Amino acid sequence: MSLMPYSADQRHTFTVGGKVYEAERHELRIIVPDDAKLDVLKNLLCWGGDNGPVKSKAKEVFDLAEASISGFRMGQ
Fold it and tell me: I want to staple 12 with a disulfide (CB 3.0 to 4.6 A). Which of 23, 32, 40, 73 is the partner?
């Protein structure tokens, strides 16, 4: 998972058991808190939480949206 969209022309492959597979590309839209900023160099979403600054990776952001944690939800 990535917070940054990849070019539609870009291919990603991975190997399992000596066999090469091509990754599938799916875009998800997630609504995040208004003050959230994307750190593109570290591929992190950063925002101010109740206990101070929070930084999360794409999978963590997805899990927050899936659980409908305050400020996060799946987009249309």
Answer: 23
User: 16-75, pLDDT tens digit by residue?
Assistant: 999 999 988 788 889 999 999 999 889 899 999 888 999 999 999 999 999 998 889 998
Give exposure, 47-70, as e/b (b: 16+ Cβ within 10 Å): beeeeeebebebeebbebbeeeee
**Tokens 């949206």 sit at which residue?**
65
Number of compact structural domains in the chain: 1
Is 16 inside any structural domain?
no
CB atoms near residue 72 (< 10 Å) = 21
Q: What's the whole-model pTM score?
A: 0.73
CA distance 73 to 16: 33
